[in-house]
Amino acid sequence: MPLTVLSVREIAKTQYYHFKAIIVAGMGIFTDAYDLFCIPPITRLLGHIYYKSHNYQIPHPVEASMLAVALLGTMVGQLVFGWLGDRVGRGRMYGLALMLMMVGSIGCGLSMGRTRGHVLASLVFFRFLLRVGVGGDYPLSVTIMSEYVNKRMRGAFIAAVFSMLGFGILASSIVTMAVCKIFGRIYPSSSNGLTPKEADIAWRLILMLGAFPAAITYYWRMMMPETARHTALVELNVLQAARDMEPVLDVSLNQVAEDHPFPPSPPSYPLFSKLFFLLHGRDLLACSTTWFLLDIAFYGSNLCQSHIFEKHHNASEATTAFEAAFKVAKLQAIVACCFTIPGYFVAVFLIDRVGRVRIQVVGFVLMAIVYFSIAYIYWDHHTGKLFMILYGLTFFFANCGPNTTTFVVPAELFPARFRSTCHGIAGAAGKVGAMIGAVGFLMVSKNDDQDGDKRMIVMLIILGGICVVGMAVTMLFTRETMGTSLDEIEKENRDEPVQGRCFP
Q1: pTM (whole model) above 0.85
Q2: Contact, 249 vs 15, CB < 8 A?
Q3: 269 near 275, Cβ under 8 Å?
Q4: Is 84 within 8 Å of 93 (Cβ atoms)?
Q5: Is residue 450 within a helix (H) or strand (E), and if so which, with residue range?
Q6: pLDDT along the chain (504 residues), means of 10
Q7: Secondary structure percentages of the chain, helix, strand, coil, to 5
C-alpha cells in the first residue's frame, strides 16, 4: 500500500503553490538559455574587440572550444548534482546550484585581464562554473516538480518548467539588442572604423544581467520544502514528509498522517547493480540514447543559427561591432517568437493528452523530414525565405516533441532513490551529443567554398538520419508514463510493468 501522504499528493488539486513552483524551478532553465544564447552575439563583439586581424571573427576552433567547455560544465553538473540530489536531498542542493549560477554569471562579466588570452581564459573558467550550476539545476528542478504535482498534470507542469528555456532565449536576445542599441548610440564607432573601447563593457554587462533572474528566486528556492517522496522513501521520515506537504497540498496534517509511522523498507540493491540494470536498464538506455540523439541535432543547428544567418543573409556586412551583435540577437529573437516558444506551448498542451512517447515519435519524424528537405533546398541553392522557414520548423517540432519529452520522461520512470541520479545521467548523455553536434556544425560551417556547401548538405542529411534513429529507439524502448502515478512506477517488481509501449 502506498503511503497516505504520497497517495493524497497524486490526486490533489492543483494549487497556487504549483504555479509558483514553475517560476522558481524554471529560473535555472531560464538562466541556462540566457547564457547559451547570449554567447553567439557576444562572440561578434569579442571578434571586433580582440580579433581585428582575423576580419573581426573569432576563429572557429576557439569558438568551438568555448562552447565545448560550457557544455562539459553542464554535463559535470548534471552528474554530480543528480547524484547529490538523491544522496543529500533535492532541496538541500537546490540553493547551491543557483548560487553557482549567480557567481558564474557575475564572474563572466568580471573576466580578468586586458589581453585577449587572459580575458578569454577567464571567461571560459567562469562559464564552466556557471554551467556546472546550470547542469545541477536540471535534475533537481525536474525531480522536484515531478514529485510535487499530481499524476494528471505532471507532464504539463514539467513541460512548463522546461518552456522557460524559450523565454530565456528571448530574454537574452532582447537584453543584447537593448544593450547594443544603447551603446551604439552613445559610443559610435570612430571615422576610421575602430571599435569603441566601451564595447568591452557591453558584453560584460550582458553576461552579468543573467544573474538577476536567478537572484530574485533564491529566497523562494531556499523556502521550498524537501519533496515528500524523498523524505518518506529515501530518508524514511514519514511524519516530516506529511508536515512538509501540509502547506503545499493545502490540507490538514490529519488528512495526510499515517496510521503507522514507518514506511515500507525500500529494496536494498544499489545503483548500477545487476538487479538495477535488470529492472531499470532499458529505461536508462532509452532515456540516455534518445536525449543523446536529439541533442546532436538540436544543439548543432540551434547554437549555430547565427552562422547560417550570416552565410545566407550577409550579417557579416554589419559595419560596427554593435550592429553585428544586434543582428544575431534579432535573428534569435525572431526564431524564439515564431518557432521555439510556440513549440513549447504545444508540448504543454499535448503531453498529458496525447502522451510522451507519441509526441516524441512524431517530433522525431517531422524533424527528419524537415532536415532532409533543407538538405535538398541547400543542394538546389534555394536558400531564401523557404529555407529559413523550414530551418525554424526544426526548432518547433523539436520543442513540441523530443526536446521536451526527453526532459520529462527520466523524471518519471525511476524510483525516488535513483530518480535525480538517472535524470542526470540521461541529461549528461544529451550534453555529449550536444558537444558533438555543436562543434561539428561549427567546423562544417567554417568555409564558404563549394566543398563547405557539400559538407553542410551531408551534415543535414546525417541530422535527418539521427532523427530517424531517435524515432526507432523511442518506439522500441521508451515506456509511456502518461496518467500513471509515481507510486505505480515505483513498483520495482518485474512482474508488474508500468505500461506497454506506445503504438501497441
Answers
A1: yes
A2: yes
A3: yes
A4: yes
A5: helix 450-477
A6: 66 75 90 91 91 84 89 96 93 89 93 85 94 95 90 92 95 96 87 80 94 87 84 82 71 58 68 91 96 92 65 58 91 93 96 96 96 80 75 93 96 93 97 90 66 78 95 95 85 46 41
A7: 75, 0, 25
